[in-house]
Every structure is written in C-alpha cells, then in structure tokens.
Amino acid sequence: MKITPKTLPGFMELLPQDQILFNEMKEKIQKNYEKYGFIPLDTPIIESAEILLAKAGGETEKQIYRFNKGENDLALRFDLTVPLAKYVAKNYNELTFPFRRYQIGKVYRGEKAQRGRFREFYQCDIDIIGDGELGIINDAELPSIIYTTFKELGFEKFKIRINNRKILNGIFEELNLKEKSVEVMRIIDKIAKIGNEAVKEELRKLEIEEKSIEKIMQFILIEGTTDEKLKAIEKLEIKNELFNLGVAELKEVIKNIRYFGIPENNFKIDYSIARGLDYYTGTVYETFFDDYEELGSVCSGGRYENLAENYTDKKLPGVGISIGLTRLFDQLNNLKLITSEEKSISKVLVISMCENDDGITLKTATELRKANINTQIYFEDKKIKAKFKYADKLQIPYVVIIGEDEIKTNTVTLKNMKTGEQETLKIEDVIKKIS
Amino acid sequence: MKITPKTLPGFMELLPQDQILFNEMKEKIQKNYEKYGFIPLDTPIIESAEILLAKAGGETEKQIYRFNKGENDLALRFDLTVPLAKYVAKNYNELTFPFRRYQIGKVYRGEKAQRGRFREFYQCDIDIIGDGELGIINDAELPSIIYTTFKELGFEKFKIRINNRKILNGIFEELNLKEKSVEVMRIIDKIAKIGNEAVKEELRKLEIEEKSIEKIMQFILIEGTTDEKLKAIEKLEIKNELFNLGVAELKEVIKNIRYFGIPENNFKIDYSIARGLDYYTGTVYETFFDDYEELGSVCSGGRYENLAENYTDKKLPGVGISIGLTRLFDQLNNLKLITSEEKSISKVLVISMCENDDGITLKTATELRKANINTQIYFEDKKIKAKFKYADKLQIPYVVIIGEDEIKTNTVTLKNMKTGEQETLKIEDVIKKIS
Questions:
Q1: Phi, psi of B295 (to 5 degrees)
Q2: Which pLDDT does position B433 carry in this prediction?
Q3: Is the peptide bond before B98 cis (omega within 30 degrees of 0)?
Q4: Cα–Cα distance between B272 and A428 in angstroms, integer?
C-alpha cells in the first residue's frame, strides 16, 4: 500500500525555482550581516523545555512543540533570542564583548494553520550584546543594516520607523499613568480608525485628567519631518528624567543614522511604536514597505536591558533586529515582487552528440568547473531536442555542444539559450566569455 | 531563581571560532555541489510520522523523535533521503528529470549519548534521480564530486573505495548462497582480523561446498592495481548475468572516473564494500582518509533501484552520496586537522580616537562596507589598549584608526595586526590595499 506523499500544513516546502530564489534572499541577508562584522551562531533546534520556557508564558507556552524522549522534557525553539540568552550565559567567559552574532535558522510555533502563517519558519537575527553596558551608537548601526539589507534584496521604497520606549514610559510616569499604560496604548493605537475625539472620549473613561489627555493628544499628533518631530517632542516640556533620556537617545540615534548614510526617505520617527510592553526598554524599530504597509513590519527589533536574566546575574544589555524570512518570502512571492535574472544554479549544460568521445565531454565539464563555472552534464541517452528542452526548463543560460566536428577541431559550440546565438570556440574562450 | 544554562548532550553547539570554521566547511561543500549543477532543496524538519516511518523499522524506529501535537502524530526527520522520496513523489509532475538536488540540513536520531555520537547532526546530501531510468555514467560523476569536495576542504590523502553490489549479488546467486548472503558477508568482513583459514572454517560451518568456498576466497583475496582488479574479477569466470552486468558497470564507472581526472591515488576498487543489504543495488562508495582509516567512511553512498516506492508507482532510480558533517567536523577538530588562515568574519575593525568626529568614523566604515569589505566599528568608550585587544581576540586582521591628525589630513591609519605595520593612507588606498 502506498502512503500519500504529503507535507504538513504550515510548513513551507518550495519547488526548485522558488527554492533558488529563497536561498538567494537568505544568502544576501547573511552576507550583509557579515559585512557588519557579525559572527555566525548555530544553536540546537531542540533544547530542554526548562531552558526554553524560563520566561515564556501565555501564547508561547501554548504554541510550543514540547515532548518527552526517554526521561527528558524537550521542546523545539520558538525564537532565536532565548537560545542566544542561554548561549551567552553559558559561554560568558569564552566570549568577547560586545558580542555581535547573527543566526539564521528555523524556529517552531504551533500556530493555527492559515494562509500566511507558518509553524516552521526562518528567522534572521542579529544582536549586539554588551557586558554590563552597551553604547547608544550601536542602536544607530542596526537601522543602517536594515537599510543595506533591504536595498541588497532589491527594494528602494521602505521606511524604518524608529522610536524610543523611554519617551513613552517617561510620559506615562510623568502623568501618573504607569498602571493604565497598557490600556492607554491600546486606545492610542486605534486613532487612525476612530479619530481624535473618540480617542479622547475613551481616555476620559479611564478617569484620566483633562490636562493629561491634552498632553497625550499633543504627543500622538506630532507630525512633520524628522527634525520637526524632534523639536516638537521637546516643546511638550515634560520634565521627566526617563523622558529626557529617551529624547536624548533618540536624537543621538538619528544623528548617527544620518552619518551612516541612510537616505531621509528610508527612515522616520514614529512615536507610537511600542513593540510589547516589557521586553524593549529603549530604541525600537519597525520596517514597512511604502507601497505595501498591509504586510506589517518586515524587520523589527530594539534595545533591551538584560538578555539573560533567567540564567545569570550578569547584566547583559543588547540591541537586535529580526527578519521573519519565510513569511516575508511568501508575501513577496504572492505579490510577484521577487524576480531574479539568474534562476539557474548551473551556468552551462554540456551536451555530447557522440556515442563515444574518449571522455572529451567529461574533460570539458571538468575544465569549466575548474574555472569556477557551475556546470552540469546531460548524461541521458535522449534525442537532441530533449536535451535542449532540459536546459530550457532549468533555465540554464548556456549550452556547450560537443559533436564530431568539434572533437576534430578541438573546439566546442557555445549556444546562448536566451538569444539563440551559436559560436564555435576553444574551451579557453568559452571560459573567458561566460565567466 | 536562575536556571542553569545547559545544552543537551549529543547536540553540538560551537564557540565562535569553531563555528566560523564549521560554516566555512559547510559553505565549501555547498559551493562544490552547486558547481556540478545540483539544485538546493529545503524540506521541513518535522514530517508526519506515517511519512517518515513508511519504510523504517528496527533501529530507526527506536531512535526517532516522535511526538503528538494536537491530533497529529509527528516526527523529526532522521535522514534527508526519506524527505527527498516524499518530495519527488509529491512533486513528480513539476520536476525536471534527471532531478539533481543537494540538501544540507540537520537530522535527528536519539542515539545513546557518547563521545562522537550526535543526536542532531548535519547531513550534506546529493542525489540524482531518474524518471524510469538513469545512465550509469552518473555513477562516475559522484566520485568526481567527492574528490573535488575533499580537495576543496584541504585534503589530499584520501581514497574513494568503489564497488558494485551486482558483483557480490551475482556471485551469491551463482553459488546458490542468496539465503546465506548476510552471514557470508559478516564472515568475509572479519578477514583482516581472523585471517584466511579462519574465514574458510567459518564458511564451512555454514555448509557451503568447498568449490564455492574457493571461489569466495579467490574473490575476496583479489589485490593489485585498479586494472589488475578488473582483470582478476573477469578471470573468476563466473557466468552469471547479474555478475557480468556488475563488472561491466564497474568498468564503465572506472573508465569515466579517469576521464573526470580523479588521480589514481584517490580511488580504488574494493570488492568487499556492501553498505547494507537491501537498499543499494549497483555502484557503492565509501571514502577513507589514508592516514586516519579509523575515522571510518567520511562520505558514502551508491545506486538504488527505486527511491520512492512507498509513495508512488513511478520507478525512480537514483544515485547519491552523503557527508555527515557534524561528526566529520568533530573528528577533524579533535585531530587538529582543521585550520584556516582567516578565522575572522571582519576584515577591518574601525577605531575612533576622538570624542566627536562629525561622523567620520561611521562614514569611513560605510565606505569600506560599500567596497564589500567586512567591517566592524568599535563603539564602546574604552581605553585604546582595550580596543586593540578586541581586534586581537577576534583575530581581525586590520585596524583602521581615526584620530585628529587623520581627520585634518583626510586620511586614516591602517594597522596590520599580524605584522604590526602601520601606514597613513587615503581611504581609497586602504580599500585597494586590503580588497
């Protein structure tokens, strides 16, 4: 009895052409992370459940893949941050700080199966971890990495939204709203939908004084250029220490972002970004495509106070970002926003026209490979038409043909599959031509 | 309460310097697979248990990580071949045959924890799958890939051992020993340990006729050069069809291996290789380091009749090889056989000597990165000595220093960390120098 070959729902499995595109994206992200001096890390996909769930709760705990093997209570990692925290705490004495690592790997969440949601997906993370402290200028380098990464992926029209959580927290502190901050944030979030007056009305229901409501409205209605927004925030005249520190940090980050050469079109201050209420403590980032805001943030992150507090007493502040590559690829592919000139791994398909050529075909392919040209040989005993069709289907750009005439004259025929052009050349000239 | 940060036994987790070396090996293998025109494939790590266990039994079933999530009976893949079989059966109509794919990914086996055994490990596989049939010359290309891969990894002294299972099976068929073949193989395997006479003695215990024992001994004692071994096998004068086909295939493979340019030192015929008794049906390979035979085979594989018979009626013959990278890396690392000139991801560390440099440091780093030079900036507010120590620890080969003099003259100072040499240069000249 045959078993029907199925792949589980929520698990991405691509056909070759898409896989090549996916890997191209993954490799570009990796190369760009390395360009900024981040070191690779590869942690196990399985960890002890105790480690992974040290902090987690709520949704995470429900979604996690957890199981026993023998006596061990195991789980699959649901992000790359918890394993990083474990790694840094475990290897603290062996690491050089600031520790800059990237990790590109699969993580697992048993989400409800629905279009665009994945249970297994790649995260592409970078984090910079300080030993005790970490300079604010690090917070300015991450947007530079986001910028060059998305440019490298072929995008121009996207915006990195930047905020500093100390500003929000300082305002709440100043207005004595710390305990209501979650609800206030939730109301503020609806402003685009329900409008200013309705927001005020809802805030009044929380028994917030009129003066505080005015401050909140002034704050969330700040608009203008980056510099105008920085000026406007100072004009609020909030004399809170945390708030002032947040504004100073944000100014420092903006100044250095400009030094890094990020165009004004590709970043903006967005005072409404919070990104969860207890993890991030300073700078926060989100990234949106200008023309596809509905995709949500395609790269997010921020500054946190203490990476590994569940595993060590060492204070390890950090700043990081993450790209959810599987979802991003799926979205971009659905929108037909991913293309590539070269969708083939092989640059050349070598085809022999003779029954017995004393190894000329294999020797030719070996020469091409030695010259670092990805080369496939068509070995099967098929009609010539089938051989060319194979090159066509795999989108291999060149075919090298070896027939009796070529063998006699110690040449090959090179066919450009796009233009149809053919020329007879020495192998050295083929190498020069297509290298 | 703090949780002790631990990694599970049997799961490799490397420190940065080793991780860089590991990734270098992985990337070299990948690039070499692509050089032969293999297409990347990335299948889920979790599959339905029914799919993964379609054929398995015995050890595999005991070792597999299997668990329930909701109503689903799930398991982690224990190799990359079963997922390939599922993939090809599932996507048969979308694929172009011969389908040449590589996959480099983690697989899971709950082995007993002991030194050198891993529960999570990378396999680096290539397979060529034919639709109904697949030419024997494919079997000659794989040794060529093994050869170039290990050369690329920096090894010279290794041997690919080649055999054809049809030869063994043909002999057993001819001598009417098919039912005893497992036991005969087991006895033959011991010849190095127990010697010829003891082997004969044990074969007699199986009630094998003296004439057959003579043939078996003649066969397993064949020695000499590759050509001598090919001649000797013909001299056995076994008139069995399967045997003759095996010999013809082996001769064809050896002829083409030579055309591919594999030196005689790097391959040999080994008539004793069987590699399990029911999966491989033709050519089989094993690869040993000349000076470290005790490591066992570091790259193995062979020809199989039918990849996906559990999932489809289509006949899909194939040939493939696999490198168990995690174990290989561990072994080579223990033997101190892995080194690398460049153990750093960053080529340059940029250090600023000024409090405020109007962004010159960030702009300089941006220039270097634009020129594709992996560059890290030292941001922390530490003494100059600490900054150089950082470059040293991370083995970053160059430091670019920006001080007040450099800013005035629009130059930077480049220090070669190996030689200690320092020169003051324009940034363009730094780029030229270290590119």
A1: -70, -15
A2: 95
A3: yes
A4: 42
Chain-chain contact of A6 with B95 (C-beta, under 8 angstroms):
no
Which residues on chain B are in Cβ contact (under 8 Å) with A11?
44, 46
The helix/strand/coil state of A174 is: helix
Provide, rounded to the nearest whole percent, the portion of chain A with pLDDT above 70: 98
Higher pLDDT, A274 or A214: A214
H or E element at residue A194: helix A191-194
* Chain-chain contact of B362 with A39 (C-beta, under 8 angstroms): no
Reported pTM: 0.95
Respond yes or no on whether the N-terminal peptide bond of residue A98 is cis (omega within 30° of 0): yes
Given a contact cutoff of 8 angstroms between Cβ atoms, the answer to whether A68 and B70 are in contact is no
The answer to whether the Cβ–Cβ distance between A363 and B38 falls below 8 Å is: no
- Surface of B (223-262) touching A: CB under 8 A: 255-256, 258-261
Task: Assess contact for A417 and A396: CB atoms under 8 A.
Answer: yes
Q: Which residues of chain B have pLDDT under 50?
A: none
Alpha carbon distance A109, A121 (integer Å): 9
Q: What is the pLDDT of residue A341?
A: 63
* pLDDT tens profile A26-56: 999 999 999 999 999 999 999 999 999 988 6
Under an 8 A CB cutoff, do A22 and B15 touch? no
Would you state the structure tokens that stand for residue A253, as one six-digit string? 């980050």
Q: Which amino acid is at A49?
A: A
Q: Of A105, A40, A111, A3, which is closest to residue B45 (Cα–Cα)?
A: A105
What tens digit of pLDDT does each residue of A328-359 get?
Answer: 999 999 999 987 666 899 999 999 998 889 99
Structure tokens at A268: 């903006």
Query: Is B369 touching A (CB cutoff 8 A)?
Result: yes
What are A318's two structure tokens?
A: 């950090």
The pLDDT, as a whole number, for residue B279 is 82
- Domains delineated in chain B: 16-334 (3.30.930.10), 348-434 (3.40.50.800)
Do A301 and A142 meet the contact criterion of CB atoms below 8 Å apart?
yes
pLDDT at A400: 97
Of all residues in chain B, the one with the smallest CA distance to A82 is B5
Q: Do B44 and A261 touch (CB under 8 A)?
A: no
Helix/strand/coil percentages in chain A, nearest 5: 40, 20, 35
How far is B331 from B198, CA to CA, in rounded Å? Answer: 34
What are the chain A neighbours of B346 within 8 Å (beta carbons)?
37
Place of tokens 């168990």: B324
Mean pLDDT value across chain A:
94
Rounded-to-integer distance, Cα B379 and Cα A79, Å: 28
Give just the sign of the alpha carbon dihedral A77, A78, A83, A85. negative
Pairing assessment for the beta strands A158-164 and A375-378 based on DSSP bridges:
unpaired
How do residues A152-210 score in pLDDT, each as one tens digit?
999 999 999 999 999 999 999 999 998 988 888 888 878 878 889 999 999 999 999 99
**Alpha carbons B372 and B374: distance in angstroms, whole number:** 6
Give me the mean pLDDT over the A57-64 stretch: 81
pLDDT per residue as tens digits for the range B190-236: 887 888 999 999 999 999 999 999 999 999 889 999 999 999 999 99
B 49-108: CB under 8 A from A: 50-51, 54, 65, 67-70, 72, 74, 85-87, 89-91, 94-96, 98, 100-101, 106, 108
Nearest neighbour of B51 by CB, restricted to A6, A100, A369 = A6
Distance from C-alpha of A396 to C-alpha of A342, rounded to nearest angstrom:
9
Provide the pLDDT for residue A414: 98
CB contact under 8 A, A5 and B311: yes
CB distance A162 to A284 below 8 Å: yes
Which A residues in the span 294-313 are in contact with B, Cβ-Cβ below 8 Å?
308, 310-313
Chain B neighbors of A50, CB-CB under 8 A: 3
